Amino acid sequence: xxxxxxxxxxxxxxxxxxxxxxxxxxxxxxxxxxxxxxxxxxxxxxxxxxxxxxxxxxxxxxxxxxxxxxxxxxxxxxxxxxxxxxxxxxxxxxxxxxxxxxxxxxxxxxxxxxxxxxxxxxxxxxxxxxxxxxxxxxxxxxxxxxxxxxxxxxxxxxxxxxxxxxxxxxxxxxxxxxxxxxxxxxxxxxxxxxxxxxxxxxxxxxxxxxxxxxxxxxxxxxxxxx
Length: 226
Fold this sequence. Notes:
This protein is about 50% helix and about 10% strand. It is an alpha/beta fold.
């Protein structure tokens, strides 16, 4: 039991009216609060700012402004907003571009209604959600980026690096290994809420915006190998 009383606020963005309406209807019938829909990129950015959804279900192929640009702009305007891409494309380049733009999940349109509902709920809870096979791709790309030589010490020995508590570091290590909040809670014998609190505290200390950035931070410092 999550303890949450209010319905998740969701916005659906897709340029196909029948598909957009069907997705919005399925979400509403499941008890979610569909606060807005949009059919193009410009409209999506305006309405997201006006209605402040928690989760944006976003197609990538949009007129007026592409989905990845929409993602960048809405996340920049509200870092607490989580974006779940719902796309017909499973191309690796599209998946990686979406994640780099700030999306926290990527689901193919071939997913069932139940899979979509589960993905929206997990996205709202802070879990990264990917169609099977894509999660490994994203983590693999972060490892590749982290292995590239850069100006900063990749092991995180910067003199002004934020200090995390032992438990925060432990949670961060498990996040980097791809465990869900529920799995981390079971592993550490703590509540789901406590895991969320540790992650939020860590995000604040590291000045990161979402769990995807957190995973990359951890991988860059080798925490996923420990």
